Amino acid sequence: MKLRWIGVLGAVGCLAYGQTGSVGGPSTGYVFDASAKMLRQVRGIPGAALMGDAMDLGISAAGAQVSPHGDAALAIAADGSAHLFRLSDGAATERALSDLMSAAASVAFSPSGTAAALIRPGSVQILKGLPDSPEVAGTLSLPSAAGSAVTATAMARPLGAGTIAVSDDGAYVLFGHDGVVDLLPVAGGSRKLADARRAGAMVAFAAGGHDAAVVSGGTLSLYQDVAGASTRQDLPSADASVALAFSADGKHVLISGRSTITVLDRASGDQKVVECDCRITGLTPMGNVFRVNEAGSGPVWLLDGVNAEPKMVFIPARPTA
């Protein structure tokens, strides 16, 4: 079943561009605007949302990732330092946390945003207890010389798009490299979970536990409890050249190519294919929706209705004048 994108714009009178500070009314979440090098709040609901004003982080941000529930952000400053922020009502408050990794190349949040990974060539640092009780859970060396090559290329992708994923409890990392997928406990050790094509594999954790998904070589492998019995189900995969993710409730798996997203029902095996009039760059969760491209000069596209009738809606770009 193919579903063409649907662009829906609603009139939301209380959501004027000129507002700053604390904002009443609904919010879809936050996005990093690479052109402004700032976070922006998305005001309104999917299909009737506008891009808000830039939020002052107090740093020159080279990049930032926002947690799936929009309550925290990890930003990388121009000098390579990492900064953790608590987000609330359109404002960002920095949370001091010692021993954060320097020179991080990328950030990946866990599915619920309670843990995160700071990634640089050859190593990954895990934070847990987000957003209110953050602490460093540990730092892992990435196995093999591939760590440097992987982080230099694939790690710039948004959460769900790459070869590293972290579980919500901050206890496990999935890493695809050198024709294998490894399960790396933060407490130490490693275990090969699966073989993968030489170019690597897409990996993802489901929220709230240790269920996982791996896509490689045209096969989607679904795992129940990779940290335990690790039962596995293999299914033919759609185009997964861009991203892989679970829905917020874990009932669906999303597999993304450059212009289409396949939504797979884990219970029934049914699939729905959604097309986007955009170039998809990832699957970044924002509550129950997924942002599929980066904020900039054009519209930001969201995948909505994953558990019912998935469709694409968009947030118009801010005027440049």
- Mean pLDDT across all residues, rounded? 85
Low-confidence stretches: 1-23, 145-161
**Rg (C-alpha, Å):** 19 Å
Count of individual domains:
1
The profile of the biggest β sheet is: 5 strands, mixed
Strands in their spatial order, largest beta sheet: 1-24-23-22-21
Question: At CATH's second level, what is the architecture?
Answer: 7 Propeller
* CATH-defined superfamily: YVTN repeat-like/Quinoprotein amine dehydrogenase
Report the count of strand segments. 28
Query: Which topology does CATH recognise?
Result: Methylamine Dehydrogenase, Chain H
**Text of the CATH class:** Mainly Beta
**Helix-strand sequence:** EEEEEEEEEEEEHEEEEEEEEEEEEEEEE
Structural class: mainly beta
Secondary structure tally, helices = 1
How far apart, in Å, are the first and last alpha carbons? Answer: 41 Å
- The backbone outline, from C-alpha atoms, is globular
Helix content: under 10%
| β-strand amount | over 45%
